[in-house]
Amino acid sequence: MNNAKNAMKNLSNKHILVGVTGGIAAYKSVELVRRLREHGAEVQVVMTEGAKAFVTPLTFQAVSGQPVHGDLLDPTAEAGMGHIELARWADLVVVVPASANFMARFAHGMADDLLTTLCLATTARVVLAPAMNQQMWQHSATQSNAALLQQRGVTLWGPASGSQACGEVGPGRLLEVPDLLEHIANSFNTGLLAGIKMLITAGPTIEAIDPVRYFTNRSSGKMGYALAQAAAEAGAIVTLISGPTHLTPPAVHHFVAVTSALDMHQAVLDALPGQDIYVGAAAVADYRCENIAPHKLKKSDKDISLTLVRNPDIIAEVAKHSPHIYTVGFAAQTEDLDAQAKAKLVAKGLDMIAANVVGEGKGFQVDHNTLSVYWQGGQHTLPTMAKYPLACQLIQLIARNYETKR
Fold first, then answer.
1. Quick check: 367 pLDDT over 80?
2. pLDDT digits 0-9 by tens, 21-46
3. Where in the chain are all domains bearing CATH 3.40.50.1950?
4. Architecture per CATH, 2-186
5. Residues 83-142: pLDDT tens digits?
6. In this structure, what DSSP letter does residue 79 have?
7. Whole-prediction pTM value?
């Protein structure tokens, strides 16, 4: 029971897209959407035309709190491409119920409606919960389509066996809502880093000028917080050290709030013993004021000069003095991304570095990102997607390379 309750915490703030296709079981999807929201998930619903014959869009709008989507070409969407917006938004796509017709079209790559198109366009995990007449489910065509979808990485939950609305008995029933809810919650638990101790830094630092003024950077902390969440869901024992942000901390083992680069430096040193992996996702200020004015600096007609001194290079220090810890750095660059990231990887003695372009609406203070990841003897590009699924993919890379090194 406690494990089930803990799993439900994984639903908080998740973006779950529920696809509904034509079938009598569509009414159960209404309860699923309600329960997902009850556990803190954000839910958007996409209905096929067949689904609307069983449940009205207004019903789903009422329980989801969001407009229901159904049109492939949506003039209200960005560039008229709603399927791309939804595909990027989703952390998980679950089709409940998935009809035989939908499975056939999806298996053969048809993109003739919104639901099939976004399923092809998304980088998120796609799950189908089949529901249909037992003879339809057991037909060789449906079984072939199910096998083909699974070979391509699509997950199937069910169907269950039992009595059906048509009066027949056999496999083809939609799984019950509590079972679907538990499956969705558990789908975010990967176990890739089970028992591994991971220290993550996130957010900006604030460097004081006087009691009123300070300088900082544009980091929102979103990437670091997403990494902490993804790592915890992968089974890691996560300590998150964060500079000032407006974000709600994820459910980690230990959370430490800091302000300045010196604060973060000390917090990292305090938390470092016993750690297996260190991820420096924070945008730590390179410099601080040599002298912080004890009182507010008065405005005058004269220019003022501030003397800046170097802050400690936290991640380089970790890599140098704790070589047994797998160290992952971040590089935010405005130009020459590949060359500068590789140079930083070597100069700081890191095991891995994740680099992204910043500026002009990229990187900082946005919900999507693109990462180029480098390590000794390898590299991989993670395409543009929302920061949580991006974090999940980066955690997979970290887990794989950490295991190889260990």
1. no
2. 999 999 999 999 999 999 999 999 99
3. 2-186
4. 3-Layer(aba) Sandwich (3.40)
5. 788 988 898 999 999 999 999 999 999 999 999 999 999 988 999 999 999 999 999 999
6. G
7. 0.76
Q: How far apart are the first and last CA of the chain?
A: 35
Which residues are within 8 A (CB) of 356 and not within 5 positions of it... i.e. 6 or more apart? 330, 331, 332, 333, 337, 362, 363, 369, 370, 371, 372
What are the residue numbers of the active site?
166
Domain 197-405 bears CATH identifier 3.40.50.300: no
Classify 76 in phi/psi space as left (phi over 0), alpha (psi -120 to 50) or beta. alpha
Of the candidates 328, 331, 329, 327, the residue with the CA atom closest to the CA atom of residue 340:
331
**Which residue ranges does the chain devote to CATH 3.40.50.10300?**
197-405
Q: Predicted confidence band at 235 (pLDDT cuts at 50, 70, 90)?
A: very high
* Confidence check: pLDDT of 74 > 80: no
Q: How do residues 196-220 score in pLDDT, each as one tens digit?
A: 999 999 999 999 999 999 999 989 9
Residues in CB range of 144: below 8 A, 6 or more apart: none
Q: What is the pLDDT of residues 286-310, one digit of tens each?
A: 999 999 999 999 888 788 899 999 9
- What whole-number distance in Å separates Cα of residue 385 and Cα of residue 122? 9
The phi-psi region of residue 385 (left if phi > 0; otherwise alpha if psi is between -120 and 50; otherwise beta) is beta
Token look-up 């790592």 returns 231
Residue with tokens 């979808």: 149
Question: The tokens 């980088």 sit on which residue?
Answer: 123
3-state secondary structure of 49: coil
Question: Helices H, strands E: what count in the chain?
Answer: 14, 19
